[in-house]
């Protein structure tokens, strides 16, 4: 008997599907003619997990719940075969694990991504997976949420057979092969792969991933749950799994991470473009500038199999740029992220040239030249003359006015901002900057293309710094003032790192380059930054910035910088005092929330959750705190934020300007996010 779920788009295991599965198993058991069962899914994928939209609603608790479903499947007296295509994720993999056999097409992926939702596999997955796949694989899959390919899964025993060709008929044939084998293999009863596992396996895993897991609750709970499988029989293990699951589920981190799951998907939607808008066809991309940014941008398209024409002004710069792209690919290949063949293919799709006119054949042209309005206008003016009709002309500017850039062409409707974050081949965020005249189909194309190159795109309006960098500015202003008032770069950075950010404002400045945006006149010293730049302290690249660096780029506090700060404070008559960590939070992070609220009220972001997506993917805001707007709503509360900002209003002086939206929402007890 074939039991097929058809619950688009991803066959999530909502209540109706769970009920249907149990009823089907019972019907199969009651029907003597049925000798074996195949569980399969219609559409693009096998079950992608529990229905996350049911979480926190009564539906999630309506019987049969997933743990009951999987137990019922495993208890079936006839063999049950899972036929997997697409992705078997979370509860979907738990269903497959409760089947007696698993077959899959080679393109299928399997995984337990619950950890990314702040939880753990709560339907026996932490107990069955190690029993079937071995403890090390289960640890890796549960605690990181990384998927494995069906091929890998078959290598370590999670998939019993790879199916080349049509899945369903082969799965049925497989079921016929195994129909008489008794006893039925039940994953909950296996002990061979969970016996005699040393504690060091878990300790070593924790150590190896300490950086990645810092601040998160769920990875440790996943580790503990898998460990239980090595210590206790299945029945006791699932009870412990349930306890840990409920504990995580009721915590703040799970709420934040589940909110973020939907925030990320919502970001792809543009609220106000006509339904019948169709994307433009993008077959070849042009990139102007083969510097770090241009090279990184090109790699995104090359990796997705889209040919790139990259243009530079001199052969030297072109060779250097292509060399860096090749080196990056080779480094990724060495880490196993690409095969040699893929690298060859990507490089073969790269057309480096000095001939600007070669861009005429491109459907999308991205400018990644020096961040200066006159230079950009000149480039777009030239592009206007040679680009083919209907080509999309994009600027990778991170601050400049996209409307002004668009006005230097005769086709502003084709112009859009595509703000990639550095390193552009790695960072997931793409701000799609919508000019006043950007055509709906240009916008739609940009959003869809982003998905093709595996970026998370967020639409931003035209304003200085768009969403991310605009919010960074008040943070930087206050952080710098705090230095003069008595904080050290180390203290400010520590507060941010303890908050969960990957680094603080001064570590970030040293990494990006203290000299970014510097006027380049060593005699004009108006602030601490100018003073550092004037003495060549440009950050990590010079071995000195806000910190001193050794040969291994390890930072240490700099007495020289401290002196510069104190001299400046004295010169400006700033009285130095002890700064509390709380004040740092209020002056840097609360100000970001305030700026986020202004961005929202000006309509520069479509929704508060988009701002959160920008900060998580662009700046490493800890996803377990949801993003600045979610955090403001749920961790800190808006009235606390307003009170904190008011407390510091005098010190912030002219830089304190409140968002009316923030004030209103705080007063009414409303939230930015839902
Ligand atoms: C779990 O299983 C817990 C259990 O262990 C224990 C329980 C007791 N639920 O991503 P896409 C929607 S936790 C509800 O754009 P793709 C999504 O919102 C779950 N909805 O497609 C979107 O809706 P819309 C563990 C879901 O092709 C639409 O489907 N599983 C779910 O790029 C398309 O999604 C996971 O965490 C869901 N589980 O990628 C897997 N999944 O169109 C999460 C998706 O309205 N899902 N939607 O915006 C994924 O990783 C990807 O969606 C997938 C497809 C790879 C499947």
UniProtKB/TrEMBL annotation:
<dbReference type="GO" id="GO:0004300">
    <property type="term" value="F:enoyl-CoA hydratase activity"/>
</dbReference>
<keyword id="KW-0413">Isomerase</keyword>
<keyword id="KW-0511">Multifunctional enzyme</keyword>
<keyword id="KW-0576">Peroxisome</keyword>
<keyword id="KW-0560">Oxidoreductase</keyword>
<keyword id="KW-0443">Lipid metabolism</keyword>
<dbReference type="GO" id="GO:0003857">
    <property type="term" value="F:(3S)-3-hydroxyacyl-CoA dehydrogenase (NAD+) activity"/>
</dbReference>
<protein>
    <submittedName>
        <fullName>Enoyl-CoA hydratase/isomerase family protein</fullName>
    </submittedName>
</protein>
<comment type="similarity">
    <text>In the N-terminal section; belongs to the enoyl-CoA hydratase/isomerase family.</text>
</comment>
<keyword id="KW-0520">NAD</keyword>
<comment type="similarity">
    <text>Belongs to the enoyl-CoA hydratase/isomerase family.</text>
</comment>
<feature type="domain" description="3-hydroxyacyl-CoA dehydrogenase C-terminal">
    <location>
        <begin position="584"/>
        <end position="669"/>
    </location>
</feature>
<dbReference type="GO" id="GO:0070403">
    <property type="term" value="F:NAD+ binding"/>
</dbReference>
<dbReference type="Pfam" id="PF00725">
    <property type="entry name" value="3HCDH"/>
</dbReference>
<dbReference type="InterPro" id="IPR006176">
    <property type="entry name" value="3-OHacyl-CoA_DH_NAD-bd"/>
</dbReference>
<keyword id="KW-0442">Lipid degradation</keyword>
<dbReference type="InterPro" id="IPR008927">
    <property type="entry name" value="6-PGluconate_DH-like_C_sf"/>
</dbReference>
<feature type="domain" description="3-hydroxyacyl-CoA dehydrogenase NAD binding">
    <location>
        <begin position="285"/>
        <end position="460"/>
    </location>
</feature>
<dbReference type="InterPro" id="IPR006108">
    <property type="entry name" value="3HC_DH_C"/>
</dbReference>
<dbReference type="Pfam" id="PF00378">
    <property type="entry name" value="ECH_1"/>
</dbReference>
<keyword id="KW-0456">Lyase</keyword>
<feature type="domain" description="3-hydroxyacyl-CoA dehydrogenase C-terminal">
    <location>
        <begin position="465"/>
        <end position="549"/>
    </location>
</feature>
<dbReference type="Pfam" id="PF02737">
    <property type="entry name" value="3HCDH_N"/>
</dbReference>
<comment type="subunit">
    <text>Monomer.</text>
</comment>
<keyword id="KW-0276">Fatty acid metabolism</keyword>
<dbReference type="InterPro" id="IPR029045">
    <property type="entry name" value="ClpP/crotonase-like_dom_sf"/>
</dbReference>
<dbReference type="InterPro" id="IPR036291">
    <property type="entry name" value="NAD(P)-bd_dom_sf"/>
</dbReference>
<dbReference type="InterPro" id="IPR001753">
    <property type="entry name" value="Enoyl-CoA_hydra/iso"/>
</dbReference>
<comment type="pathway">
    <text>Lipid metabolism; fatty acid beta-oxidation.</text>
</comment>
<dbReference type="InterPro" id="IPR018376">
    <property type="entry name" value="Enoyl-CoA_hyd/isom_CS"/>
</dbReference>
<dbReference type="GO" id="GO:0006635">
    <property type="term" value="P:fatty acid beta-oxidation"/>
</dbReference>
<dbReference type="GO" id="GO:0016853">
    <property type="term" value="F:isomerase activity"/>
</dbReference>
């Amino acid at each position: 008997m074939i039991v097929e779920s058809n619950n688009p788009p991803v066959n999530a295991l909502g209540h109706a599907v769970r009920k249907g599965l149990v009823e089907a198993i019972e019907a199969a058991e009651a029907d003597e003619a049925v000798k074996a069962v195949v569980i399969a899914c219609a559409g693009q994928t096998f079950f992608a997990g529990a229905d996350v939209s049911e979480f926190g609603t009564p539906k999630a608790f309506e019987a049969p719940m997933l743990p009951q479903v999987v137990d019922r499947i495993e208890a079936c007296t006839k063999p049950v075969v899972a036929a997997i295509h697409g992705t078997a994720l979370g509860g979907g993999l738990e269903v497959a694990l409760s089947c007696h056999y698993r077959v899959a097409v080679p393109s299928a992926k399997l995984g337990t991504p619950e950890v990314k939702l702040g939880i753990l596999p709560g339907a026996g997955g932490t107990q069955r997976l190690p029993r079937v796949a071995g403890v090390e694989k289960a640890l890796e899959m549960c605690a990181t949420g990384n998927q494995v390919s069906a091929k890998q899964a078959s290598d370590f025993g999670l998939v019993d057979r790879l199916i080349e060709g049509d899945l369903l008929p082969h799965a049925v044939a497989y079921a016929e092969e195994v129909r008489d084998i008794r006893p039925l293999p039940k994953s909950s009863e296996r002990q061979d792969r969970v016996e005699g596992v040393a504690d060091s396996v878990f300790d070593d895993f924790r150590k190896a991933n300490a950086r990645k897991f810092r601040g998160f609750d769920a990875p440790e709970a996943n580790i503990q749950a898998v460990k239980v499988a090595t210590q206790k029989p299945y029945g006791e293990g699932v009870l412990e799994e349930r306890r840990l699951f409920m504990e995580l589920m009721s915590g703040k981190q799970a709420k934040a991470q589940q909110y973020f799951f939907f925030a990320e998907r919502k970001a792809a939607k543009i609220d106000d473009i006509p339904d019948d808008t169709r994307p433009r066809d993008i077959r070849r991309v042009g990139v102007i500038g083969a510097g770090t940014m241009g090279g990184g941008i090109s790699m995104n398209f090359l990796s997705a199999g889209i040919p790139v024409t990259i243009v530079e002004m001199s052969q030297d710069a072109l060779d250097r740029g292509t060399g860096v792209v090749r080196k990056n690919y080779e480094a990724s290949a060495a880490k196993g992220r690409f095969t040699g063949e893929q690298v060859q293919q990507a490089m073969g799709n790269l057309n480096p040239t000095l001939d600007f006119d070669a861009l005429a054949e491109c459907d999308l042209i991205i400018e990644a030249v020096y961040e200066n309005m006159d230079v950009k206008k000149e480039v777009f003016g030239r592009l206007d003359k040679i680009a083919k009709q209907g080509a999309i002309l994009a600027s990778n500017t991170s601050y400049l006015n996209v409307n002004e850039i668009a006005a230097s062409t005769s086709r502003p409707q084709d112009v859009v901002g595509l703000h990639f974050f550095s390193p552009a081949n790695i960072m997931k965020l793409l701000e799609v900057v919508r000019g006043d005249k950007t055509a709906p189909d240009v916008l739609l194309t940009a959003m869809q293309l982003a998905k093709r190159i595996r970026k998370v795109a967020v639409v931003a309006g035209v304003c200085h710094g768009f969403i991310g960098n605009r919010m960074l500015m008040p943070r930087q202003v206050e952080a710098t003032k705090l230095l003069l008032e008595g904080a050290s770069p180390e203290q400010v950075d520590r507060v941010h790192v303890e908050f969960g950010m990957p680094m603080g404002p001064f570590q970030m400045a040293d990494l990006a380059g203290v000299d970014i945006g510097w006027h380049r006149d060593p005699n004009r010293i108006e602030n601490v930054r100018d003073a550092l730049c004037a003495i060549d302290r440009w950050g990590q690249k010079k071995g000195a910035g806000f910190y001193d660096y050794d040969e291994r780029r390890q930072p240490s506090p700099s007495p020289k910088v401290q002196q510069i700060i104190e001299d400046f404070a004295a010169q400006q008559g700033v009285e130095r005092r002890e700064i509390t960590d709380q004040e740092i939070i209020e002056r840097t992070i609360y100000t970001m929330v305030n700026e986020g609220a202004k961005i929202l009220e000006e309509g520069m972001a479509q929704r508060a959750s988009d701002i959160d997506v920008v900060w998580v993917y662009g700046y490493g805001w800890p996803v377990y705190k949801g993003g600045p707007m979610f955090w403001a709503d749920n961790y800190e509360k808006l009235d606390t934020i307003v009170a904190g900002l008011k407390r510091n209003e005098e010190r912030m002086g002219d830089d304190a300007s409140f968002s009316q939206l923030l004030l209103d929402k705080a007063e009414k007890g409303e939230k930015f996010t839902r």
